Write a sequence for this structure.
């Protein structure tokens, strides 16, 4: 059991650092070129180290492509686009709402039963998000607001990926499904996005700082973080794991304060507390299986 807690804590650290390092990418680089490089490297690494888990059957490839569009192409482009122009602490709080987004999507698809208590938790959490966004004002041209909205769209896309991933029946385990989605998603994105990659290419992409960050994304955030999470969910209570995972808000905020001299205002603190409280209330309801 202690090993599972260690895996969960390690994933929190990996993802918190992820939200920090994205802000250090050179602003001249396009999100498409960064994401293509990242997913291409991820695909190569999966092919080298996890080749036996790649399934080349037509129905598995099609399912992987659909999941990859939501979880890789859309999510990663939005994450890098938004994460590079907002505050890491904002990114962490917004992504922490994914259990609630997953529940809302599942309600529409009739995979979950309606719960007034869970809806109450969702309203509290999104009130917290509103306060965090309002802290910097609602200047539609302000980079923080644009970045936060972009990050929120990324959270929605990954929530869709999670819901449809749970619905699939053809992969023998979540780890195999994830590896196939990352592998085929990388191939799909590289093919589709190569013209844009070529158009927006900058030699700065291969500067030590930028390529190091992209390698971190490819190795730690994409592969190791997913494997750790699948291991935790398999051997641990998923609701409790999701709740503990939201300690990432605190870790990311502390790292942002230390590394980026971020000074959270009163609205950010209140908003974070409300978001965490809303997630806690929603997570206390027994989940139905998708």
């Amino acid at each position: 059991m202690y090993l599972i807690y260690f895996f969960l804590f390690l994933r929190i650290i990996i993802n918190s650092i992820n939200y920090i390092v994205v802000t250090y990418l050179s602003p001249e680089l396009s999100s498409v070129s960064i994401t293509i490089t990242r997913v291409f490297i991820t695909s190569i690494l999966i092919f080298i180290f996890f080749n036996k888990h790649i399934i080349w059957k037509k129905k598995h490839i099609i399912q992987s492509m659909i999941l990859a569009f939501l979880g890789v192409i859309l999510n990663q482009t939005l994450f890098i686009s938004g994460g590079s122009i907002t505050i890491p602490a904002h990114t962490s709080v917004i992504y922490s709402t994914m259990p609630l987004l997953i529940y809302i999507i599942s309600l529409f698809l009739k995979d979950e039963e309606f719960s007034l208590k869970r809806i109450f938790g969702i309203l509290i959490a999104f009130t917290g998000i509103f306060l965090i966004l309002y802290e910097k004002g609602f200047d539609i041209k302000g980079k923080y607001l644009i970045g936060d909205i972009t990050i929120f769209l990324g959270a929605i896309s990954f929530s869709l990926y999670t819901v449809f991933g749970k619905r699939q029946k053809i992969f023998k385990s979540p780890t195999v499904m994830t590896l196939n989605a990352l592998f085929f998603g990388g191939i799909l994105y590289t093919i589709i996005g190569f013209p844009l990659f070529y158009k927006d290419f900058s030699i700065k992409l291969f500067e030590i700082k930028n390529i190091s960050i992209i390698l971190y994304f490819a190795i730690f955030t994409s592969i190791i973080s997913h494997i750790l999470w699948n291991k935790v969910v398999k051997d641990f209570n998923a609701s409790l794991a999701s709740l503990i995972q939201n300690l990432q808000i605190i870790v990311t905020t502390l790292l942002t304060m230390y590394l980026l001299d971020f000074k959270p205002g009163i609205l950010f603190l209140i908003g974070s507390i409300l978001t965490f409280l809303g997630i806690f209330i929603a997570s206390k309801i027994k989940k139905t299986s998708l």
Q: What stands out?
A: DSSP finds twelve helices and no strands in the chain. The chain has a mean pLDDT of 82.
